[in-house]
Give the backbone structure.
Amino acid sequence: MLSAVYREYAPRIAGLLRHGFSFRSGGQPRRFVGYASAFDFQDALHDTFRRAFEPKARISYDGLRPYGPYIATIARNVVIAGFRAKERLFPAVGAGPESVSETAETPAHLATPTAAAPPQNPEAAAHDASVRRLVTEFLAQLSPEDQALVRLRYSEGAGQQDVAAALGVGRQVIRTREKKIRRALIRYLQARGETQWLPQDATFLLAAAATAQLIKGVA
Amino acid sequence: MNHRRKLAAIRRYVLGELPQRRRRRLFERMSADADTRAHFDVAVHGLRILEGSDDGWCPFELDLVHDRLLGELQPRANPLATWLRRGRRALWSGGALAAGLAALVFWVRTDHTSSQFTVRGDDASGPLALRALCGDPLRPAERGCEVADTMSFAYRVAAATDPDRPLVLFGLDGRGQVLYYAPTPDDPAALRPESGAWAPAQITVALEINHRPGMLRVFGVLLEQGRMVDHDDIQRWASVLAGEPSATSSGPTWTTYLDEDSNPPCTSQRDCPAVELGIELHTTSGKPQ
């Protein structure tokens, strides 16, 4: 049952956590720009459903309100609580109302995710470009068969069964090859030490900057 | 967790292969260590690009969170019921233990030579030696064991070996089924061997519960100090070993077949004492079936 609830609502909550949302706090309109870090994103998604599935939360849900906005409110609280914790580590400097003094006052805003993709600072954009370049390099050195699989599966969005039929192999072969490609890609990225491209101090500053930008005023 | 192992854990988690218990350790590590987090982020980012995600996230990420979430919510199995089902480990009663120890001490002091029984690992001069016994009273397993028997083990760890290295034991039958001896799914503790003398592994396996007639391969390894493995690791090793030939007295040890993705027991083959036994299990009539 919990699994079915998760399957039903997780994509929507994932959209909120990844792309951000608007809300009011301390009387000010604010905007959460979405998690850039996959770890933060998945952790917040996990925390949202963990809280939603706790006995207390399940009892407090009255069954009358739509469940989507209810769980979106939990997601919002996860985000704001996370920001508060980080705010203590990275206090705001200079202009900009980065502090969050109150929880959201208008949960209805949560129903509408904002931008299609989180805005990127220059460092994040450069990092994204760097990973894209490595993925392109990786794809170029795949065998023609694996390249065909990647094209059919991911560029054309074909299902495993259709790809198997197109390539004249069994579905299990496709599953195995797909997993092998994914594993090889991660190895490829790890071998090139992509996370090391920034010096340690710069990484720290980037983390601080990203945190400061996590929630910013839109007024 | 060294750097290589950290990267392997991230890889396995992202691919949905990391056991639940090790997942928790990885999350703790990622929460505390920006470098580990960054490696994880890049791995996921790369897969998002590969899969051409338009949403900014990929379905596999939702699956990872689903498994993590549901894994945490699953109730723990009833240990007694699970033992009865699996029959992996039973502690001896006091009397049986004393008798077993006496038989064991007598047996291990006797010279045993049988290349048929032990394929690699009865060299008592090596860093780790292992022998199997079965029946009541205990007898050497050179001539095989009946499925109706119980089976136990004796081991010897060289005196010069680090005394804090845990010993892992597991079996693999001809159908590829893994048999857990230590640790087991219900008891995550590996054995804590004493160095310098033969000693009984204080476990008894009731063979008839989950062992089948035929050749049983038994594997043992001394982990590095402070290292822990669980039944998922053993399952992974066993799936690799099922496709590899049994060891020979002069051939490579089984640990050399494990790549880093299988979370091998040692970081270095040069310091990875491992043994492998071959035991014929047969029915009461003496036929392996």
